[in-house]
What we know:
Oligomer: single chain
Shape: globular
Structural class: alpha+beta
Largest sheet: 5 strands, mixed
Number of helices: 5
CATH topology of the largest domain: Ubiquitin-like (UB roll)
Helix content: 25-40%
CATH class of the largest domain: Alpha Beta
Strand content: 15-25%
Number of strands: 5
Number of domains: 2
Bound molecules: FE2/S2 (inorganic) cluster
Mean pLDDT: 96
Strand order of the largest sheet: 2-1-5-3-4
CATH superfamily of the largest domain: Beta-grasp domain
CATH architecture of the largest domain: Roll
Order of helices and strands: EEHEEEHHHH
Amino acid sequence: xxxxxxxxxNGIEHQVETDTRRTLLEVIREHIGLMGTKKGCDEGDxxxxxxxxxxKPVNSCLVLAVEAQGKAITTIEGLSVSGKLDPIQxxxxxxxxxxxxxxxxxxxxxxKGLLNEKPHPTEDEAKRAIAxxxxxxxxxxxxxxxxxxxxxxxx
Length: 155
Ligand code: FES
Ligand code: FES
């Protein structure tokens, strides 16, 4: 069944007519055209599709788009402000915390969700925050170091 839904993505309101069974991931990519959120497993296993809903990380392949109405949705495209990268992006770049980059948007969003909740996480908390995000290229260490580095920006 098709329905018109209203989604606020990166601060911008979008009206989308879509099947009520479509996931937030599908609507973000196919209707709104933001391709930074990646589609990996489409089953909640890889974390590549991580976005923030009201500041908290979720696998957007497991959330129906209709369920995200009334919530603030943040994708990787919404992290930089006026072209200025978010501190977590700066830290990951400085740390060389990516190789092929497929997992990177999801890991950045998971890390951002942690820093929203805990501005100064421990190493264990950083590891736990990205435990649901699969990366087949790196050893995860640079992500963890990047999260700790970003948490130290501005004290
Ligand atoms: S695409 Fe959503 S968890 Fe893998
Ligand atoms: S950098 Fe390639 S999957 Fe993570």
